[in-house]
Amino acid sequence: MDKLVSLGKRRGFIFQSSEIYGGTGSVWDYGPLGIELKRNVKESWWSRMVHQRDDVEGVDASILMHPRVWEASGHVEGFTDPLVECRVCKLRFREDQIDSSKCGRKPSLAPGHHGECELGEARLFNLMFRTFMGPVESEGSVVYLRPETAQGSYVNFINVQTASRQKIPFGIAQIGKAFRNEITPGNFIFRTREFEQAEMQFFVEPGTDEKWFEIWLDERQAWHRSLGVRSENLRLHEHGSDELAHYAKKAVDIQYKFPFGWKELEGIHNRTDFDLQRHREYSGKRLEYIDSGGGKRFVPYVVETAVGVDRTVLMLLSDAYREEEIEGELRVVLGFHPRMAPVKAAVFPLVKKDGLPELAREIVKDLRRAAVPAFYDESGSIGRRYRRQDEAGTPWCITIDGQTSENGTVTVRDRDSLQQIRINASNVLEWIRERLAFPPP
Ligand code: GAP
Predict the structure, then answer these.
(1) CA–CA separation, 67 vs 83, rounded Å?
(2) 305 C-alpha vs ligand 1 centroid, how far in Å?
(3) More confident residue, 335 or 354
(4) Dist. CA 299–CA 288, nearest whole Å
(5) For labelling alongside 259, which of 160, 161, 319, 395 has CA 20 to 30 A away?
(6) Is the pLDDT assigned to residue 441 strictly greater than 50?
């Protein structure tokens, strides 16, 4: 993890937020390469969940919602973690994670294990961030930063269904920021207080929910594999009754083997009709579906797929990171699947003269015009330029040399095999496009 954090900063993937002020441990900023990687994750999810299907529509609901939403959803009452405070060092810990937490004293032991530790009674702490809507800071103007995107889809169920003329079963997908005042954030971007979710709520007829749960569980695993991660690093974990969220009848996590162990990446939940029934009760509106064919009326059940975008980015970084020794030198590589790589091709003139920079810039321009992210670099030795791109995860480096002006060919160097081949400069775009279309192994 330390290596990932340091590479993340060195190459411009992820920076500590507000670093010049000492940083905050619980939020992170994406740099130039990180934002491209994150965008690739979101675009892949949106393409597969919305654009490639007839039965899922997208929304982008607001972060600030009517406060009654969170009463109806159960978050005001039940979105809590048990918090324990040490009266001596004033640090706070999650009671259910106390054995894996570290106390503030040196040497750092689990809280309660130092002679001076004085742990108080556990009390429930609500994870929602509160703020005020408008100029008056009173109880009547309290609003919350949403802790999940899902509720924005439920409150828009009738709007979306009517506007899109969808019939059950159908889904509402959304990508957006969520906020949780986690007691123990940590592990880089794994658990933060501000993060992004990609969630889809699939509305089905009661009785068909279990079938749809299995369909979505398979589909979501297929998406993770499509990102090129090693399948031996993915597994499922079904929640026992003590782990189930207040809304769920069944929940299965897709877990990834992060450097700090197997952890949840995505949750697939059978939320029954809990949310729509509660919004029906709290809003007094008829949140039900009327089947125009048979005239059947029912409150749909919901199968939810909920993945963390930042956790997916961390998975891709962890899965891609490798170190190799090449001719006695350490090579650090991010072996992303080309479709996920922030930059697809780096183009180098071998020397800064003889018209080579101009030829290289032409190729970069062609690639960019075709929306293939390309990077031009003429500084340093070719070896150094290769190493920088290996650390950025760029799959192909294209070098323009003396032969280019003679016979129109360029060298393409493959990040993983290190093989170099010559192809026609005029074929570079086509050559890359073919490989981007190729599915992962
Ligand atoms: N709507 C259901 C829901 O929010 P969840 O399991 O609490 O379910 C879904 O969250 C996903 O959001 C998680 O699997 C995880 O990937 C991501 N996530 C949740 N809390 C997070 C946090 N504090 N930091 C980063 N990602 C988080």
Answers:
(1) 24
(2) 11
(3) 335
(4) 4
(5) 395
(6) no
Measured distance CA(195)–CA(253) in Å, rounded: 18
Calpha distance 402→416 (Å, rounded):
25
Token digits for 113? 């294990």
pLDDT, one tens digit per residue, over 220-261 is 999 999 999 999 999 999 999 988 888 889 999 999 999 999
User: Which atom of ligand 1 is closest in space to residue 180's alpha carbon?
Assistant: 23
For residues 257 and 184, the answer to whether their CB atoms sit within 8 Å is: no
- State if residue 146 touches ligand 1 by the CB under 6 angstroms criterion: no
The string of DSSP codes covering 4-70 is HHHHHHHTTSEEETTGGGT--TT-EEE-HHHHHHHHHHHHHHHIIIIIT-SSEEE----SB--HHHH
**What is the mean predicted confidence (pLDDT) over 257-267?**
97
Distance, CA of 82 to CA of 7 (rounded, Å): 35
Check if 180 has its Cβ closer than 6 Å to any atom of ligand 1.
Answer: yes
Give which of 191, 176, 174 is closest to 314, Cα–Cα. 191
pTM for the full model? 0.94
Peptide bond into 107 cis (omega under 30): yes
The finding on whether 195 has its CB within 6 A of some atom of ligand 1 is yes
Which residue from 355, 342, 428, 356 is spatially nearest to 393, judged by alpha carbons?
A: 342
Amino acid (one-letter) located at 242: D
Mean pLDDT, the chain, integer: 93
Pull the structure tokens for residue 2.
């330390």
Q: CA distances (Å), 135 to each of 138, 140, 141, in order? A: 9, 12, 9
Residue 28 Cβ inside 6 Å of ligand 1? The answer reads no
- Ligand 1 centre to CA of 406 (Å) is 56
Residue 439: band (very low, low, confident or very high) from pLDDT cuts 50, 70, 90:
low
Quote the ligand 1 centre to 198 CA distance (angstroms): 9
For 26, the token pair is 């619980």
Count the helices and strands in the chain (H runs, E runs).
Answer: 13, 23
Percent of the chain with pLDDT over 90: 79
Distance, CA of 420 to CA of 401 (rounded, Å) = 13
Q: Is 199 exposed, middle or buried (0-12, 13-18, 19+ CB in 10 A)?
A: buried
Taken in order 233, 35, 40, 9, the sign of the CA dihedral is negative
Among 90, 84, 96, residue whose Cα is nearest residue 122: 84
